[in-house]
Design a protein that fits this description.
- The structure is a single chain.
- This protein has about 475 residues and is α+β, with helices and mostly antiparallel strands.
- It has 3 domains: about 10-65 and about 175-235 and about 320-375, FAD/NAD(P)-binding domain, CATH 3.50.50; about 110-170 and about 235-315, 2-Layer Sandwich (D-Amino Acid Oxidase, Chain A, domain 2); about 395-475, Rieske [2Fe-2S] iron-sulphur domain (Rieske Iron-sulfur Protein), CATH 2.102.10.10.
- About 20% of the residues lie in helices and about 30% in strands.
- It has helices at about 35-45, 85-105, 130-140, 170-180, 235, 290-300, 340-355, 380-395; strands spanning about 25-30, 50-55, 70, 115-120, 145, 160-170, 185-190, 195-200, 200-205, 210-220, 235-250, 255-260, 265-270, 275-285, 305-320, 325-330, 330-335, 405-410, 410-415, 420-425, 435-440, 445, 455, 460, 470-475.
- Strands 3, 4, 5, 6, 11, 12, 13, 14 and 15 form a 9-stranded mixed sheet that branches. Strands 1, 2, 7, 8, 9, 10, 16 and 17 form an 8-stranded mixed sheet that branches. Strands 18-19-20-25 form a 4-stranded antiparallel sheet, with no helix packed on it.
- The protein binds flavin-adenine dinucleotide.
- Flavin-adenine dinucleotide binds near residues 31, 32, 64 and 222.
Length: about 475
């Protein structure tokens, strides 16, 4: 069988034929058609507001289409959230879970949503205390949790917590079902927002197809927002990249489960249709991130055999490991920064944003916790600046990669594909001019600074860049 270098969920992506052909106006414009964007539209659909969603590619094709689809309160980031914030964060996730279940049950959504059990584990004795602390907090909140032996063969588990109340989902089937419910919402694909101008309290949005959308309110559901001010995102968040494989497994499936560890050497697994989704190597994006090494970790691991799909994904990591949800400035809202746990946070986040727009007070108890005007951590800021400096510097000189198919120079690169086509690209990322690196498994040009990604034709498919890159292809 041929291995596909794309996400397992890509085959479920659907396209709409509805095109934006003329200038339009609406009450609320939602930019981005992933979980955050579509769910915000869902929670606004019963208001009297005219809601429009625009998406630069296909609905769901961003980070959402490349996730693993685990639904659990036992998240690895719990070990990084401060003592002060952790209880409220867990409560937000419980509410997110209730919202997700309600949507699925009330609307009878077909999205392969199954109950399973969830494990949070460590492979290091020294990290056991962190898990014991999480166990105490769960017990204080009267959540059912226990210590359990977990046998993952060659992954040497030292200590594990188990929860019964966990789930798994096909994120794209879920999104497709939500989309069907948005009958009174205008959804346009292939609309890339380039510029937003605010005058007298009204937004004029300019798109890549030279059209204008006039809106009273704007919701940024773009994952990485591409505006700099007022939040100065590149200084406050970093992008984390991980590698995922889907295939047969040597693990015995005695029960449906998902599992993730809290250690630096990351393992995350879940099952889908009796095969396993296996994630390795979560690393903050910099030039030190080595795609080949990441993919090899999956390919060489004995727990995964006969790999059907192999891909990478990236999400925003915030300084305090908490989501960023709220109002940016008058009439402008944002929801992002889920630290690779977006299913539950996007539910609570989109309901919060919808309620803010509808001027309802419900769920505002998380407003401060998730505030976009979040704190700068000097240490993390310095780390990410050094990463950027190092990644720009590291790629100034021309290098020839191992397989000799990619030739980099100071500002150009050439990739020679198997079919003999040569792709010549200007390798400066349009976002902040970092040099792009070729990801030879997924055949994308990836930015080592802030995670923008471009396909072989040069179309932007992820990250903060709002522009494509120029590509010349010759045979
Ligand atoms: C490796 C990995 C595994 C994960 N696994 C899980 C998991 O098991 N469980 C879980 O809960 N979470 C998981 N997540 C997190 C989850 O995938 C994300 O947090 C979530 O999908 C983010 O959804 P979103 O709608 O905010 O972003 P996206 O899905 O990226 O949607 C944003 C959309 O905005 C569009 N866009 C961007 N700019 C523009 C523009 N200028 N104009 C128009 N459109 C634009 C993009 O094309 C994109 O489709 C994982 C993340 C990673 C990286």
């Amino acid at each position: 069988m041929n291995m596909k270098n794309e996400s397992l969920w890509n085959s479920y992506l659907e396209s709409s034929k509805k095109e934006l052909k003329e200038d339009i106006s609406c009450d609320v414009l939602i930019i981005g058609g992933g979980l955050s964007g579509l769910l915000t539209a869902y929670y606004l659909k019963d208001s009297n507001l005219q809601v429009t969603v625009v998406e630069r590619n296909k609905i769901g094709s961003g980070i959402t289409s490349k996730m693993t689809g685990k639904v659990t309160l036992l998240q690895d980031i719990l070990s990084k959230i401060s003592d002060k914030d952790i209880e409220l964060y867990i409560k937000s996730q419980i509410e997110g879970l209730n919202l997700l279940k309600k949507n699925i049950e009330e609307n009878k959504l077909d999205c392969d949503f199954f109950k399973n059990v969830s494990y949070l584990f460590t492979t290091k004795k020294s990290n056991q205390k962190k898990l014991e602390k999480i166990k105490n907090i769960f017990e204080k909140l009267k959540l059912d949790i226990k210590e359990e032996n977990l046998n993952l063969h060659n992954i040497k588990v030292k200590y594990a917590l188990k929860m019964e109340n966990a789930y798994e989902i096909n994120p794209i089937k879920y999104l497709n079902e939500i989309r069907k419910l948005l009958t009174n919402v205008n959804i346009y694909e292939k609309v890339n927002v380039l510029e937003i101008i605010k005058e007298k309290g009204i937004f004029t949005v300019k798109t890549s197809n030279n059209l204008k959308i006039i809106a009273k309110k704007i919701v940024f559901a773009t994952n990485y927002p591409y505006f700099l001010k007022p939040l100065f995102f590149p200084l406050k968040v970093r992008m984390e990249k991980s590698y995922i494989g889907y295939g047969d497994t040597s693990l015995e499936l005695k029960e449906r489960f998902n599992a993730i560890n809290i250690d630096k050497d990351k393992y995350s697994l879940r099952f889908y249709k009796n095969k396993m989704l296996y994630l390795r190597e979560s690393r903050i994006i910099s030039s030190k991130v080595n795609d080949e090494k990441g993919f090899l970790k999956i390919e060489n691991d004995v727990v995964l055999k006969n790999i059907n799909n192999l891909w990478s994904n990236e999400d925003i990591v915030t300084n305090d490991n908490l989501p960023i949800i709220g109002m940016v400035s008058d009439g402008m809202y944002i929801l992002t920064g889920y630290n690779a746990w977006g299913i539950l946070s996007s539910h609570i986040g989109s309901l919060m944003i919808a309620n803010m727009i509808k001027k309802r007070k419900k769920y505002l108890k998380y407003q401060e916790l998730f505030s976009p005007k979040m704190k700068l951590s000097l240490k993390k800021f310095l780390n990410s600046s050094l990463n950027i400096y190092e990644s720009i510097n590291g790629y100034l000189k021309g290098i020839i990669t191992k397989n000799k198919l990619i030739l980099y120079s100071r500002d150009k690169a050439i990739y020679v594909a198997d079919n003999g086509y040569c792709y010549l690209v200007k390798r400066k990322c349009p976002h902040l001019k970092c040099n792009l690196i070729f990801n030879s498994v997924e055949k994308t040009w990836d930015c080592p600074c802030h995670g923008s990604r471009f396909d072989l034709e040069g179309n932007v498919i992820a990250g903060p860049s709002k522009y494509d890159i120029k590509v010349k292809s010759v045979k």
